[in-house]
């Protein structure tokens, strides 16, 4: 079932896109991440231009995150105050990211920049997450059920503007979640991801939030951040393909519900290990495509007038 995407200017199999949306929605509900770290490379792999993949993926993340967040909301697993502080930071990061995206697109370097960002960030974060989760699982086997501190106090705990977050039982500087949110918003704009693969470990290990609240709170922030990025990308850079977005949305909403129900069957360290493994697999594929010899060495790209 082939459909033509007017902005991407390619024909794709609609059932394949629906299936990809369902898979990413499932991961969104399972891990509390937007799933863009997987969807954007997958879209590029099947021939969608990287700039369109990033801009359109932000649209799909909105629906997938809403679906997953509502399931967590019903369970009482969303810290709204923490989510709003993260959102304030992500708004600034999103605006800066879309601005830089437009500059790189005008220079003709956006495809290379997207691949390099994926290679650097996914490789670093994936390796660190996998290392930590393996250590955590080994400790669990040696001392099952033993309570341990979620985090150590670092220099950021001495920052000013201390704020109480009753739901998470935290009393920390608001600057820490603001900075984390800003980084997440920037990555959403540049890489077409929800930023959850940065937010989730940062909220657990830096902020010290209870693991039960992290996924829902992360998705709460991702909803508004991705909606803003989608609007800015469509208005400023014209890189949002509505037809592609609708196909991804349809699959993502359904998949997120299944992922949320499955999330309670994995321990935190097991879920992080699985997420890290997926991140590293995508990173290896991106690195191979970036450094490998292209199948066609002499391709002339025609630019639309503007």
How would you explain this protein's 3D organization?
The chain has 306 residues and is mainly α. It is built from ten helices and four strands; from the N terminus they run ββαααααββααααα. It has helices spanning 14-31, 36-45, 50-74, 80-107, 110-142, 175-191, 196-205, 211-237, 242-262, 268-291, and strands at residues 2-5, 10-13, 162-165, 170-173. The strands form two sheets. Strands 1-2 form a two-stranded antiparallel ribbon. The chain has a two-stranded antiparallel sheet with strand order 3-4. A hairpin with a 4-residue loop joins strand 1 and strand 2 (10-13). The radius of gyration is 19 Å and the shape is globular. It starts with a strand and ends in a 15-residue tail after the last helix. Residues 147-151 and 302-306 have low confidence and may be disordered. It comes from Inquilinus ginsengisoli. Keywords: Cell membrane, Membrane, Transmembrane, Transmembrane helix. This is Probable membrane transporter protein. Belongs to the 4-toluene sulfonate uptake permease (TSUP) (TC 2.A.102) family. It is found in: Cell membrane; Membrane.
């Amino acid at each position: 079932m082939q459909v033509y995407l007017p902005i991407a200017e390619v024909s794709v199999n609609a059932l394949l896109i629906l299936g990809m949306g369902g898979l990413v929605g499932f991961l969104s509900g399972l891990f509390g991440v937007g799933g863009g770290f997987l969807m954007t490379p997958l879209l590029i792999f099947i021939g969608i231009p990287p700039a369109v993949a990033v801009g359109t993926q932000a649209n799909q993340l909105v629906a997938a995150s809403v679906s997953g967040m509502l399931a967590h909301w019903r369970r009482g697993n969303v810290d709204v105050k923490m989510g709003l502080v993260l959102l304030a930071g992500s708004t600034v990061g999103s605006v800066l990211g879309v601005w830089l995206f437009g500059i790189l697109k005008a220079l003709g370097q956006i495809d290379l920049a997207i691949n390099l960002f994926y290679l650097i960030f996914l490789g670093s974060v994936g390796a660190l997450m996998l290392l930590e989760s393996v250590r955590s699982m080994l400790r669990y086997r040696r001392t099952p059920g033993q309570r341990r501190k979620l985090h150590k106090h670092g220099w950021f705990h001495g920052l000013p503007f201390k704020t109480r977050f009753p739901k998470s039982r935290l009393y920390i500087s608001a600057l820490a979640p603001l900075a984390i949110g800003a980084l997440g918003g920037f990555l959403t704009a540049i890489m077409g991801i929800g930023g959850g693969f940065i937010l989730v470990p940062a909220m657990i290990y830096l902020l010290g939030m209870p693991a039960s609240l992290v996924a829902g709170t992360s998705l709460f922030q991702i909803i508004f951040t991705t909606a803003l990025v989608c609007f800015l990308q469509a208005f400023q850079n014209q890189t949002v393909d509505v037809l592609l977005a609708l196909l991804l949305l349809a699959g993502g909403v359904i998949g997120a519900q299944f992922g949320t129900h499955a999330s309670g069957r994995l321990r935190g360290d097991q879920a992080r290990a699985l997420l890290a493994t997926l991140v590293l697999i995508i990173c290896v594929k991106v690195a191979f495509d970036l450094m490998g010899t292209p199948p066609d060495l002499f391709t002339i790209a025609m630019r639309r007038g503007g």
